[in-house]
Each structure stands twice: as C-alpha cells, then as structure tokens.
Design a protein that fits this description.
about 150 residues, alpha/beta, Arc Repressor Mutant, subunit A, 2 domains, four-stranded mixed sheet, 5 helices
C-alpha cells in the first residue's frame, strides 16, 4: 500500500511487516517534497500511518509498535532503546549513547533495521554529523527537517 505525507522532507520510506512485527524499514531520498511510504499491510498498519503522519508534522508519537528484534543481542537492543530515547530535534554523540563502546554504537547505527523509529540519524560524531547508512546528505536533511542546529 502506498501513502504520501505532505511536508518539506523529500523521503521515500519502505516498511516490510510480518503478521506480528515490523521486519525492516528502508529509506531513500525522494525526487519531490513529501514522505512517500510503501508498507506491507498488517494488523498494525494504522498505527504506523499515525506515527508517520505525526513525524511528517514534526510531532512524533510515542506509539508501542511491534519490531522484530529476535536476531539481535540484548546489548544491541539496549543500545537501540537508548537511540529511540533521543528526542526529536536533538542529537547525542556515539559516546553519549554508550560511553564504554562508542564504536559498537556506530556499528549498530550502520545496521539499524528500523531507521526513523529508532532514529540513528540523531547519533552524531563530536564535531560533525558523522556517517549514515543512507548517506550523509540524507542524514543532514533529516536533522534539518527536525530543526536541529549545530
């Protein structure tokens, strides 16, 4: 199912779901403004749509969506939860997320299967925005959309 949310952010989001959980979220820059969403139908599709609409309006919701973490270690899940707790429009450095394993935070961000929902774009390197699995220009657009200022 395809949906479009009006906003200034040019973004394509694809969400793959099983009957029980969100399996993967993929991002790509879009050619025009607005968030284009392609989603596998599920029993929780409406919650995803509500979350995406709120995000597009810069008012993200704190919904209890099901994510499939079965393939992840407890440490990875713990770091992902810390990343999820970074507020809209704010950032944290890799070391602030986990002071004793900042490189691990970088790897977890690089392989984050649920970007936006677990906003790895809000994890930055001290002094610059750092890398992003979907490219630094998209990370900068996401941070700008969230009105983050250095």
């Amino acid at each position: 199912m395809k949906y479009t949310f009006a906003c200034e952010l040019p973004l394509f989001v694809e969400i793959a779901c099983s009957s029980q959980a969100i399996q993967k979220v993929s991002l790509a820059p879009a050619d025009k403004r607005g968030i284009e969403l392609l989603i596998t139908p599920s029993s929780f599709s409406q919650k995803i749509l509500d979350w995406m609409y709120a995000f597009s309006q810069k008012k993200p919701l704190s919904l209890n969506l099901p994510f499939d973490f079965t393939a992840f270690s407890p440490f990875t899940v713990q770091i992902m939860e810390k990343i999820k707790a970074i507020p809209f429009g704010e950032v944290a450095s890799y070391g602030e997320v986990c002071s004793n394993a900042p490189r691990a935070v970088g790897r977890i961000c690089r392989f984050n299967p649920f970007p936006l929902f677990y906003p790895c774009h809000r994890v930055v390197r001290k002094g610059n925005v750092g890398g992003f699995a979907y490219g630094t220009p998209l990370k900068e657009k996401l941070l700008s959309f969230e009105d983050f200022r250095r």
